[in-house]
Amino acid sequence: MLKTTRITLSLLFFSLITIFFLDFTGKLPHEFHAMEMIQLVPALLAMNWIIILVLLVLTALFGRVYCSSICPLGIYQDIVSWFRKRLTNKKHRKRYKYLQALNILRWSFLGATIIAFLFGFSFLVGLVDPYSAFGRILVHVFKPAYLAGNNLLASLLIPAGNFTFYKVGVYLLSLSSTLIALVTLVIISIMAWRNGRIYCNTVCPVGTLLGFISKHALYQIRFDSENCTLCGRCARSCKASCIDFKNMTVDASRCINCFNCIEECKESGLKYKRKAENGKRKAENNAPSLRGVHKVNDEAPPLNTHSAIKRPVIARSAQHDEATPSKSALGYSSRRRFLASLTLTALAAGKLLADKTLRLGPKKKVARTQPIMPPGAFSIEKFSRQCTSCHLCVSKCPAQIIKPAFLEYGIGGMMQPMLDFKHQFCNYDCTICADVCPTGALAHLDQETKHHTQIGRVQLYLENCIVYTDETSCGACSEHCPTQAVHMVPYKGHLTIPEINPEICVGCGGCEFICPSQPWKAIFVEGITTHKTIELTHDEVEEVEVEGFGF
User: Fold this and answer.
1) Which of 177, 212, 247 is the last residue of a domain?
2) Which of 187, 338, 524, 536 has its CA 20 to 30 A from that of 257?
């Protein structure tokens, strides 16, 4: 009964978390992210004291039930062990055996994780956090395969008139993150195949922390000295390798409450019960040990022998109203671009002759110097401290513009999410990434707050603009700006050219995504280390109906 209940709960949690990560249709409600909120490390970082208290109380009462039924990476290891048991030839099947606890290694990983967090190396925290490691495996290994399978079905069914499946883009989000996820998957799978839950009891900091509490749990798996025959079947079925049947002890700090041992024992020699409450139990603990009186054979133990018991929105289109803006473009660092701005203003006022040519030099190679943090990050300090790179926001972004960083944030911020506008831009009304973040690295935003949050500032290089280089009409950047931070001003004859107001830019990237200039964009968004609140007037965000494509 105990094992059946554990397996049912484990499969429920594992299925919900996995499906939520893989779902790309948006059909699953965002409330499903509650499965991620109850993970221990995200709850600690988000300071969700209710969840933390519940998990600690459950551990103090019943042992490591979190590791057994809630942690998705732990359940994945159980699945690998299950396949190993059924795919390995019974004659050559290697069973588990009792191993001494590697306490120095366990506490070293936990200590290193705490030090890495205190010194801002969130990369290392996310690397060993079981929930984040599992999330990255899903996003970078299993989800591309899942999307490819969807596209294959779509290619087979659509010609037949069945539109149940539709094709979606499959991108390599990050080579470094994909390699890290793949290596993590291989290492954990091999460890689980060979030694069951050894990862949980050596590397995982969550397992070490909860193991310390579980060692003193009220309910534990304990030997019944009157029924145990020292057959050793319990130890051979223990995935945590924590049962020393020869001395009738179970290391509760490593036991993950899988209840395999109780299921395997035919003599009811193991029971899940409370610790000794009275002197009678304590007397049993002090009973003389038979260890050393006879040699116990693992395969053929003597009968009736007992040893002592040890208890151990798309962005809204906007057209300029033909009036010259009251504020010129700001933020040009070089004297040449400043003079260009003055020239444009003079052109707009009609102070220059129509035949004058604006010369800004050859095309300029441009590159972002500061990564763009997702909405809700607010500051680089808060974001880098709380993000464990689980990549749930990467998976759930409907525009697929969130990608893992390499060294853009520095070594401590490796794999943390940033925005990239190569394939799309950030929908003006979308707040999904902040809604699903389980650690609080991305704070919840409503639409109104997001409309006034600046996550980046627009930059303009007129040397690259096709209006200047090719003397052709464009205006795509202005049409895709929801706040009119980018607008068009008169240039030559019927031509208009972009002008920017970085003060009211929200950093959505609509202008950068749509800019047709090649090989370098004429306009792009530069990241900022602290998000700001901008003030918008009604006129600046007035929605304009645009026919057709918009430009």
Assistant:
1) 212
2) 187
